[in-house]
Structure formats: structure tokens, C-alpha cells
TrEMBL record:
One of its GO terms (biological process) is error-free translesion synthesis. Residues 3-128 form the ApaG domain. Coiled coil: none annotated. This is Co2+/Mg2+ efflux protein ApaG. NCBIfam families: PRK05461.1. Pfam families: DUF525. InterPro entries: ApaG_domain, ApaG_sf.
């Protein structure tokens, strides 16, 4: 698990390898990840959008941007958290993801960015 705190918002990420499968005559490696966003600040915040950079060992990278997470724009009160599960496909058994969430603080209405720490994706069979 990797964790990072930005402006009182703690991001924790756990990953798992889901398996391999063929699509369009190519092998793909499926990874799942669980993100917990914990509000350790004194203000209520809302997650408005996300930005991900997905990298694989074949030097491919993909940028994903969008509103909310899993179709939601959660409001997280002080001391509360929001957890969701998602996943990605890689063309190689190794890779990494990193990014940030764009959030707004309800007390002062200021927008701010919360860093999602870089986390590694690796298929256990490919490890030495």
C-alpha cells in the first residue's frame, strides 16, 4: 500500500493483479486498485475531477481525465473517508500509475489539487 497526505487529504492505494486475457489478438494484463480518500482536515471537501497517468514497461503511457470517480463527486466531511475500486489494462506485466484529484474546500471555496502517489502494478508471475 502507498499513502500520501496533501493539505489534510490522505490518499491510500492498494493494488492487485486480476489476470491476463486476449483482446484484439493481443495479451493484456488486468490490474485492480482500491483508493481510500480520507479527510484529515477540519473542512468538508468535494472531489470534482481526476487526472491519471498510466505507464507500462513497454514505454506506453495513457492519460485519463474525467469528472469525479466511478461516476460520483463525493463530499467528504472531516474525519470521514470515501473508498472506491477501479482498474486498468496494461500491455506488459509491469507498470505504474500516478495522478491527482481536483478538489474544492467548502469552507473557503478554494480549489486545490491532491496528489495521488505513484503506485506500481506488477504481475506476481513476472517477479523474480
Amino acid at each position: 500500500m502507498v499513502q500520501q497526505v496533501t493539505k489534510g487529504i490522505k490518499i491510500s492505494v492498494e493494488t492487485n493483479f486480476e489476470g491476463t486475457f486476449y483482446k484484439n489478438y493481443k495479451v493484456h494484463f488486468a490490474f485492480g486498485y482500491k483508493v481510500t480518500i480520507e479527510n484529515q482536515s477540519k473542512d468538508s471537501v468535494q472531489l470534482n475531477s481526476r487526472h491519471w497517468k498510466i505507464l507500462d514497461a513497454l514505454n506506453n503511457d495513457e492519460i485519463i481525465e474525467g469528472e469525479g470517480v466511478i461516476g460520483k463527486k463525493p463530499i467528504i466531511k472531516p474525519g470521514e473517508s470515501h473508498t472506491y475500486n477501479s482498474g486498468c489494462l496494461l500491455a506488459s506485466p509491469f507498470g505504474a500509475m500516478q495522478g491527482h484529484y481536483n478538489m474544492v474546500n467548502f469552507t473557503d471555496t478554494k480549489k486545490f489539487r491532491v496528489v495521488i502517489p505513484t503506485f506500481k502494478l506488477s504481475a506476481p508471475f513476472a517477479l523474480n
